[in-house]
């Protein structure tokens, strides 16, 4: 028979085999790249119209912190002027009504209040607090305690101004004098770990925006008259349509989502 | 005519070779693809709550020899040993070579070297396990040389080596190091806030750390956590609990899963034993031995931050883990530490306690001052134990439950002494307090 014809047929067969093999090779390569990293989660989130800034992948360190009850507010309450002050023993908190309410506008409110708290006769230990837009709302401005170890987002160390009709009328304050390190530093989850974990647990709805993701200490429990704080990621998610804002809290040591939406007050355990 | 035929033949040869090359790529590549998927799955799994293996299997004490004396150092804000390991992960460490063996005098010299930073494991590990833990390829090889001390010279620029030393046969290995700097290690040493003068003494049963002067140590308090039996059975029987047979006798609960698995939980002592008769393969390498032990403890406990490998008995395939606080082991009421795992052809056994340190709490105990180790040996001698009877001495924390608050436990330092295979606090051996008057 025509040997040449067989050669041509073989050539065609092998050539098509090559094309097939090449295509399947390319396919498998694409699979490798998509399965190996969790960048796919990020792209998936973007597809679902979830917006967020650059996510920090750095794993930092944090501590277990403790504080013991102190009477710093009670001892200094006499220094306050031009306000009606009452001190509550159980929470060790100050509630104050200002004699002259402070006028604020949405543009200058932070600068005005930052200046106000600097003066000791206005607010005790005002230098130890910092404005937190994440925790504030239209009716209150929340200042959180700042220490060398980080910020504390908790009702046990907070300065909250109440706002009505563009006027600051009064405030409540709690204070922690010293935070002590209870255990050597421990690795914590990165911002990216937390966001992808929240998404994987269906905690981030489609068409929403991650407004804030902040790491702060919050109360874990009370034992032996002391308060124990752990690092927690506070993630604020804003729905783009309904404008509903929810705050998710994630234990930064374990990455477990803490199932409660209120700030501070609730009691939960480390497994949370 | 002839020419076109030549082209066809040539093209055919090319096509055949290309197909062979492509199939080769696809085969090797699919293998990688599958492996990649496995890695993805395990990382997603461990992501949940991981404490890396090199934290559980890690040196627990750090000894620094300055120009004159040796000091046991610790930093209560940062674990020096873990930080040193992190620095070492970037080093290029060559295969260790044997320098000397069974030479007690030379060994004494090595472990007392000046300007040496010494990391001490509670138990000896193999060099290839060390390579695995540091993710260091040149150490990962086949060699299973045992050692329990890592020595690094921080001052001598010419000594570009680390030394690995083994207390049980006085073997010293030397490994060339590249890409290393002593600066970050010196910084870590300087930050230490606990500094106790020590001397390493070679005794009949090993190298003991002697505290030269009386030592003042803080007490600690922790919130402890435990789990219900049901949580253990779901984790350990890894199948539905339909076939579960339960029995109870004097507070001792038994859960049987057919003939293959059994959990016994003693509610009086809160000690549990899990036997798995299906787990009959005995680990073939020391690395597999430790890896399987690590997998088992992860499966048992949620919080293993404070847990360290305390003893690895390769001959009997027996592992003991203990909880540590600030570099000192915690001795609970049990003889086996916190978790004990044994592999055998008949199945694996896990002994463990249902009490785990969870959250540190400020302690209101006053600091304790313990006698020097010499005084302890003198006291033991007074009741008839010669130094040669003592198998091990360790400063450790005693577990004292608070009666008014079951959830909180106080940890108090004392000397623990091992005689005749039993660990007991000093006061139980001698009826004398280990505290300085």
Automatic annotation (TrEMBL), chain A:
The chain crosses the membrane at residues 6-25. Pfam families: YycI. The keyword Signal does not apply. One of its GO terms (cellular component) is membrane. It comes from the Bacteria. InterPro entries: YycI-like. Residues 29-253 form the Regulatory protein YycH-like domain. The keyword Membrane applies. Keywords: Membrane, Transmembrane, Transmembrane helix. This is Regulatory protein YycH-like domain-containing protein.
Automatic annotation (TrEMBL), chain B:
It holds the Pfam family YycH. The keyword S-adenosyl-L-methionine does not apply. Keywords: Membrane, Transmembrane, Transmembrane helix. Residues 10-434 form the Regulatory protein YycH domain. The keyword Transmembrane helix applies. It comes from the Bacteria. The chain crosses the membrane at residues 6-27. This is Regulatory protein YycH domain-containing protein. It comes from Companilactobacillus formosensis.
